[in-house]
Amino acid sequence: MDLKRFSSNSTRKHVIADPHVQGAILRRVALYAFAAILYYSVVFCCTVFLSDREGTTNQRMIECLDDAITWIPGLLVILPIAAYDLLATTNRFAGPICRLRGELQRLIAGESPRPLNFREHDHWSDIAELFNEVRAELLVLREESKNPTGPRKTTDSSKEVVDVLL
Question: What is the DSSP string of 64-80?
Fold first, then answer.
């Protein structure tokens, strides 16, 4: 995935920030939903077929389908809403990591990306602050390596970054 196209200060407008991670979570939840529906269907059919009711197998199948007609439409409405909500929720942690990965690629490529800022309700906002400190220190070091004119000044923020990273 080409992460260089994302701006470091962009606001995500898409629900899917990292298709690999969010897709894996969505597939897992879909598997659980399918297992729950299968379980409910088997238990319901066993209840109908093992009851002491009179009737043929066809009548009991029709009875199962009659009951399914009441819960299948609700399920078809709830499942897409739940999937969208799940993707929107996972976007709060997949998006910041996706943006961080893109900014790290820019930094490694020698570009000087802007400071990284996450949206207000994103998870891991402290990572953006740490990245910005490391970014600033790296830019200073790169500048000093281009112009070796004197002893390097150690800033308090660089000491804090080293302490946090260790």
Answer: HHHHHHHHHHHHHHHHH
What is the rounded average pLDDT of the residues 26-42? 88
Is the C-alpha dihedral spanning 105, 110, 113, 116 positive or negative? Answer: positive
Q: Tokens representing 139?
A: 């830019």
pTM across the whole model: 0.58
Q: Cβ neighbours of residue 4 under 8 Å, at least 6 residues apart?
A: 102, 105, 106
Write out the two tokens for 31. 């598997």
Q: Is residue 100 a contact partner of residue 3, using CB atoms and an 8 Å limit?
A: no
Distances (CA, A) of 107 to 38, 113, 126, 137: 49, 7, 19, 12
pLDDT in tens, 76-129: 899 889 888 988 888 888 888 888 999 999 988 888 778 888 888 888 888 889
Res. 57 pLDDT band, cuts 50 70 90: confident
Rounded distance, CA 21 to CA 90, Å? Answer: 9
CB-side neighbour CA atoms (13 Å) of 119: 15
Contact criterion met (CB below 8 Å) for 82 and 63 = no
Q: Which residues contact 34 (CB under 8 A, 6 or more apart)?
A: none
Per the listing, tokens 């943006």 go with: 99
